[in-house]
Amino acid sequence: MTEMTPLDLAHAAMDAAPEDDTARLRFFERLADSEMFVLLSRDPEGETLAPEVFETEEGQFVLVFDREDRLSAFADRAVPYAALSGRMIVQMLDGQGIGLGVNLEVAPSSILIPAEGIGWLAQTLAHEPGQVEAGIEELRAPTGLPEVLLTSLDQKLASAVGLAKMAYLVSVVYEGGGRGYLLGFIDVQKGAEEALAKAVGEALTFSGLEAGALDVGTFSSSSEVAAYLAKVGLRFDMPQPDAPKVYQPVPPGSDPDAPPKLK
C-alpha cells in the first residue's frame, strides 16, 4: 500500500467530516504549504512556465501532484514539470479562471478545485494579523486558545528557518483596557517581519479563527518586554540555519592515529 502523504491525511479528515469547516481549512493549508509538481505543456523557458491546461465540462484545470511518482503514474510517459509550493501555484492561477486538479486518479486525495475556490484560497493566503500599535499594560500566561491553533503555529514557525530566534505566545492587556493575544518574535532578521506576519495570519485563518484574535510584535532579546515574555509566555523555538562547514586540511603526519600512507 502506498504511504499516505500529509495531503492524503488532510483530505481523508475533510472527507470524514464534511460539515467540519476546520478540517476543510486544514486541507487547504496543507495544499498551500506542500511542494507540488505541476504538469507543463513544454519545458520551462527561463522563469516562464506553461502549465498544461485541461478542458472539462466543469471548466479549465491545471494538474498538480504532491509526489513526482504520482505525476509519472498519471502521465504514463516522460513529461515536463515544475516543482512549486502550493501557494505559488494558487497565486499564479488567481484571476485566470482556471481551477486546480490535485492528484487526479492516482491518490486518495484526488480532488478538483474550481476557479472560484482558487480565488478564495488566494484571498485567504493574503490575510495578515495586525501589528501591535497600542501600548502594552500587562502580559499574562496564555489560556483558552484552541489546540488546533497551537498546532498550526508550531508547524508554520518550524518552516521559518532563520527568520527569528524564537517566539512567545502570551495573553495581553493593552492600555485602555483592550485584551487579546500576542505572539512576540525575538531578534527578528531584518526584512523578515512581513513573512512572519503572513505565516501567523495563515495559522489563524486555517484554524478557523478571526484575524483579530492574535497580534504580532517584534522585540530585541535585550529588551525588558522580551524578559517578561520569557517569564510568562508559551515558547516556540524557531529553527536556525546550519552553520557553514569549514574545510581545514590536516597536515600529513599530524594525527598519530592516522599516519601518512607511503606509495
Give the topology, please.
Layout: H1 6-16, H2 21-33, E1 35-39, E2 53-56, E3 59-65, H3 68-75, E4 81-85, H4 86-93, E5 98-102, E6 111-113, H5 115-125, E7 136-140, H6 147-158, E8 166-174, E9 179-186, H7 193-205, E10 215-219, H8 224-232, E11 234-237
Parallel strand pairs: 3-5, 9-10
Antiparallel strand pairs: 1-3, 1-4, 2-3, 5-6, 7-8, 8-9, 8-11
Helix pairs in contact: 1-2, 2-4, 4-5, 6-7
Order of helices and strands: HHEEEHEHEEHEHEEHEHE
Strand segment count? 11
CATH architecture level-2 label of the largest domain? 3-Layer(aba) Sandwich
Oligomeric state of the chains present here: single chain
Low-confidence stretches: 258-263
- The residue-averaged pLDDT reads 84
User: How many domain units?
Assistant: 2
Q: What structural category characterises the helix and strand content? A: alpha+beta
CATH class of the largest domain: Alpha Beta
> Helical percent range?
25-40%
Termini separation = 53 Å
- Main sheet record: 6 strands, mixed
Principal-axes geometry comes out as elongated
**Over all CA atoms, what is the radius of gyration?**
23 Å
